[in-house]
Amino acid sequence: MENGVITAGLEKYFNPETTEEVKVTEGTHAASYAVGLARVKVISAYPITPQTSIVEKLSEMCASGEIDAEFIKVESEHSAMACVIGSESTGARSFTATSSQGLALMHEELHWAAGARLPVVMVNVNRALGAPWNIWADQSDSLAQRDTGWVQLYAESNQEVLDMVLQAYRLAEEIMLPVMVNMDAFFLSHTTEPVAIPKQHLVDQFLPGYNPKFKMDIKDPRAFGGLATPDRYMELRYNIQKSMEGALDLIPKIADEYDAIIKRHHGGLVEEYLTEDAEYLLVTSGTITGTSRIVVDAFRNKGIKVGLLKMRVFRPFPVKVVQESAGRAKKIAVIDRNISFGQSGIFFNELKSALYNLETRPLINGYVAGLGGRDVTPSTIEKVINHLIAAEKGEDLIWMELNYESDEI
Amino acid sequence: MKKNALDFKEGMPVSAMSITDMSKNKTGSWRYMRPYYQNKTAPCIKGCPTGEKIPDYFDKVKAGKFEEAWHIILEDNPLPGVCGRVCYHPCEGACNRKDLDSPIAINNMERFVADQNMANGYPKHFHVEKTEMKIAIIGSGPAGLSAAYQLARKGHAVTIYESLAQPGGMLQMGIPKYRLPREVLKKEIKDIQTLGVKIKTKCTVGKDISWQNLQMSYDAVLIATGAIKSRPLNIPGEEKKGIAPGLQFLREFNLDDKKEIKRKVVVVGGGNTAIDCARSAVRLGADVTIVYRRSHKEMPAVPEEIEEAEAEGVKINYLTNPVEFIGDSRVRKIRLIRMELGEPDDDGRRRSVEVQGSEFEIEADQVMLAIGEIPALDFLPDSINAQWGRVDVDSFQMTNNRGVFACGDSANGPIGTVVDAIATGKNSAFTIDAFLNDKSYHFINNNNVVGFDKINLDYFHKEERPAEARSDQTKLTNNFSEVNLGLDKDQAKNEAERCFSCGYCTTCDTCLVFCPDVAITHSDNGAPYTINYDYCKGCGICVYECPRDAMAFEEEIKWKTE
Amino acid sequence: MSQMKFEIPKIELMKSGHVACPGCGASMAMRYALKALGQNTMIVIPACCWAIIDGPSPCSVNGVPVFHTAFETAAITATGIKAGLSRQGDNDTTVMAWAGDGGTFDIGLQALSGAAERNEDIIYVCYDNEAYMNTGIQRSSATPWGAWTTTTPTKTPKSRPKKNIIDILLAHHIPYVATASVAYPDDFIRKMKKAKSIRGMKFIQILSPCPPGWKSAPEQSVHISRLAVNSKVFPLYEVEDGYRYKISLNHKNIPVEEYLKHQGRFKHLSKEQIKQIQVDTDTKWEVLMKKVEMGELFSEN
Q1: Searching chain B, which residue's CA lies closest to the CA of residue A214?
Q2: What value of ipTM does the predicted structure carry?
Q3: Confidence (pTM)
Q4: Does B14 touch chain A (CB under 8 A)?
Q5: C25-300 CATH, one of 3.60.40.10, 3.40.50.970, 3.30.70.560, 2.40.30.170
């Protein structure tokens, strides 16, 4: 296979009618191409490993005229977010990308973007936070931004990154809340995969231009974000929650529309793999999912009914879908590449909470694995499933493959 | 499927977005001090005996509206062309600007306005509804003219009795032409006559018409005969030939064009009459010396006049006094004695005391006595009280005889100057009018005078008053052309701009510009500005910054209780 | 001209009803700024007094679009707005960041420096009231030496001089930097208009009297501002292209004590301390004069 053409045999993966070309590309570049396809007008970013290749690619694209956007190379991630907050306020579709420390620095502005109801889309390359320095995959950065009012999406593949960014704009501009598309550092960001670039006119059809009803407009002068007194603030927060809840309906709908136009579907709120009859359900997000599919298949071949639930959306948390899908299993294993210190893996915690109101609750175990970019191999996942099958009562926090002689497996 | 989450819900936007301004927030409720516009009295107005509204007419000069400026002066003074030349301008002495650089040339401004209107007649609204009342005024000097003018404007029929051939009194007979060209006087008298004032010249009361007749024929009589009798020195030799009152010299020269003059002229006295005599004599070719018993500082003549006289070659012997005139039948010499200054007397000037044994003599072919004038009241019946040779009047200028009034130098009160005469003439007119209508009368009391400390100097830059143009006086002999030429238009406008306008709003916009609450706007009801008390927080910047103290600041509670 | 005359645009975009304290310099400043810039203007306001003055939502006192933003982001949010507008074909609208001294000298300095270095086409106005006034008078790096604030009590008043923000901005080689005073609205408006006419980054520092924070009488706000200028504590000047200095008006030689004495925040200062301030002020003025000379030298070449 070479760049630019669909080599024979790949047609079953990439629909030639909707695909302009297939590029063998990194996850970061997949994000950059999506930004171009979305006809983003303003980009602002600050470099941080491993997000840098996104902005490098975008710089090239801006310089070559491939995309018609203003790229403001700011002096910090905080400013990057503030910049796109400003540009979005004028009704200009905007983009930024970051990772780890950068995202942490943005924290204040994440709240502002959501509170100001601005449909910013950001790609976050999930990377561990210091100290100590670590540049590898870890979801603690994005999950620490849980309560900022951002929609959080998690991609499994480079193709999904591209498709997810486009869908993110549709979603953001309909609910008027910002959306964060997350991909694992290096496993996606710096791993080349074939990615189908959809045809521009189809993308335009799926994602028309952005024109909000209210914006910074000299013909309709208004102040945005002025002091809200206690008699008004709570309602504004209620409104955000309602929009978030609206996203639970919209995300699958938008995914279906994308499928209808671009002919590709990665799931709605979740992707269910062999969950229908699964007794043991594995819950994953990000790249661990791809590895897990193979292990699930292996257990199925042994006649053990293992299923896989891939979490595509963390915020809003798809409680209903999780209740339906996971509620059918006997035992659940949640694998987290993140940790909320003093508690447990964060997806585990959310999932467990979602299941609490079920009449019959499955046993649920939380596994923390692969922090700071450590490999989560098929054997790791095999250990998880075996541990789950053997479990007699639920355990919140099981550390996988710790190099200590302690309670790890 | 586009539904925008930023939509309105029950009238309120879903996000924090403005849908209205802050007009509902009436910040005026914060205020505990209330600013307001309050025109106060400029010191020049207070300083001017006739109370001319000086900043008011300056405002018109600024705008080039010279006729309107003239009308403002005419409210108080019908003789601006005269006063603008001969007034001793106490207004300038009071001017706040003197404490920054130099006082405004108010006197010349008045003259400028009058000169600009030399071709103009009085406006139509001066012709008012005539009344049945008749008033006789004795004397057509500044006091009589001023009273006649004000009474005529109230619709009364006024007749002035003047014993001389020409009206004007001291203005006509006393003041030299180089100070007051007669066409100016003539024009302003003529203007007064257009109001219906009759002037009977060569008609002396007590001779051509009896006092009784006068009193019976008129509803009121005003005595305005001035002070025309020179005071004698009462020293030996005063009867000698060549010694005469200065006023007589001036009258003969000004009215009868008598130009007889000796070589060595000595003028005794330090007032304006003395200077007028001296400068006229110089112009007739005499060598003139003024003898004055006090020092330069006490000299009552206008300082500029003294300067000009000295510049023209008049010698002034200060602190000297004649004790004897020497000569056969005609004066040849004067024996003088040196004086020194002692304790202040009643009018505040230091008393002059003779220095024993300091006598000396100077030559004199002709002596003019100008040590002061007193009224000639021979025509008055005894029933009218007089004191110190002047008619006794109350604060309403009325004598002890109801319906008989007196003003100017012939009555007690301020003495000796044209503007004081005009002022008392005006006041008598108002009180006569009130008397005739059986009404009470209150003089305006200009007490709220703006002091220099109330002027905001941040708004004014130092700039000296303009130097006045003068005619060529290098050849003095027989040169009676006007010395001072007044201001040109640019100078006048600039001078009006230079005026602080103390206590008088000039719509300079300072208050409006600095209001942090946008609560001051240009008014549409005639007042310069409106303060919107709904929003004014009472910070007081407008009051504090007002360059000219035309605003006031008062506790809100006082307003609320009123 | 022996009297001061005003040539002020009539347009009033800032309306009555705002919640600035009586005698607030910042409210005067906004009024003049909007008079100068006109309707075609957008304002970015970070955390500062003006975040409150403008009015609580759903109200706004300014007749132009206002975007409230986080404390340290005035310059960059304005940048974003400008970029958003220009990418949508609007290159005419003036975008003005309007921040206090805290949001400029301190927390917002990084974003300001970034915007200046990139020469963003915005006007950045710092209305400098020399402390964190909105939070209740805490010291900032704009607080002058010797001043009282709630965090520099009179026993230990501020011991370091005020940061020279103008020089910091000049180090970025931006086209226009100026100081302005509410006591000189003509000069203020002229500078705002000039800033509007220049493409690239413009920075204007306004000394903004704060009666509660300076412990001064509200009615004296303009007077004190004028004293600040004429005592040369806050000289009025502008700098084009980073080196062409121009003094805006004739500064009278008023002793700094005249300026200090109207303000309670300085009343604890001793004669010696005031003398020290005088010496510092004179030195800074001398330095400024040298810069003017140097600028002239370079301009000739």
Answers
A1: B6
A2: 0.96
A3: 0.89
A4: yes
A5: 3.40.50.970
